[in-house]
Design a protein that fits this description.
The complex is a heterodimer of chains A (about 110) and B (about 120).
Chain A (H helix, E strand, L loop, with lengths): L3 E4 L2 E3 L6 E7 L7 E6 L6 E5 L3 E2 L7 E6 L2 E6 L9 E6 L11 E4 L1
Chain B lengths: L2 E5 L2 E3 L5 E8 L8 E6 L5 E7 L6 E3 L7 E6 L4 E6 L8 E8 L4 E4 L3 E5 L2
Parallel strand pairs in B: 2-11
Antiparallel strand pairs in B: 1-3, 3-8, 4-5, 4-9, 5-6, 7-8, 9-10, 9-11
Classes of the chains: A mainly beta (about 110), B mainly beta (about 120).
Amino acid sequence: DIQMTQSPSTLSASVGDRVTITCRASQSISRWLAWYQQKPGKAPKLLIHTASSLESGVPSRFSGSASGTEFTLTISSLQPDDFATYYCQRYNHYPLTFGGGTKVEI
Amino acid sequence: EVQLVESGGGLVQPGGSLRLSCAASGFTFSGYWMNWVRQAPGKGLEWVANIKQDGSDKHYVDSVEGRFTISRDNAKNSLYLQMNSLTAEDTAIYYCARGNPYHSDYWGQGTLVTVSS
C-alpha cells in the first residue's frame, strides 16, 4: 500500500501566522489528494480536493499545492477558527489512506 | 441541504455483530459513491469501505475484509454497514460520508461503536 506521511504531527502557531502542513506519499499518486479539517467532537470537513481545488465555501486563506509526491496545505493567515486537526487523504487507489493528522494549536 | 445521519452504534461484546445505518437526504443518493470512515478514540481517521452508486462495486480496508459488508438501498436513501466478528480494535466512531467520487465531500456526525465485555 502507498503510505502517507504527514508532518508535523503538532504545530504551535499564533493568529495571523502562515502555516504549512505537508503530506508525502511513498510513491506517485498523481494529484489524487484531499485535505480535511476536524474540530474536537465534530465530523471532518473537506477543504481541498485534487491537491489544489478549494471546496466551495472554504475561505481563500486555505490553499493546496503539489510537487511530485509532496503535498502542502497552507493557511496564509491563521484565524481563531482554524485551530483544529488537519488530515490528508490519498484516493488514487484502494485503500483510501489518510495521513496521521496535524494538530494546529496555540 | 445535504444531510447524513448515522444510527445503530452501541456497546457490543467481542465476537458480536452490529448493523450501522446512514440516512441520506438533500441530494440524489443513487448518484454517488458512499463511504464509511472510522476514528478510534483519540486516533486518526481510517477509511473502512465504499460502495458504487448501484451497489455493483465495493471495496474494503484489509482489516475488515470478510467481516464487514457495505450495502445500500437507493429506494430508501440509505447506506448500511454490517459488522461481524467484532473486536476491541473496531471500537470507533463510524462516519458515513458521500463520495465525490472518492474523496468525501459531506460527512455525518458519526455513531459510536464500543466493543467490550
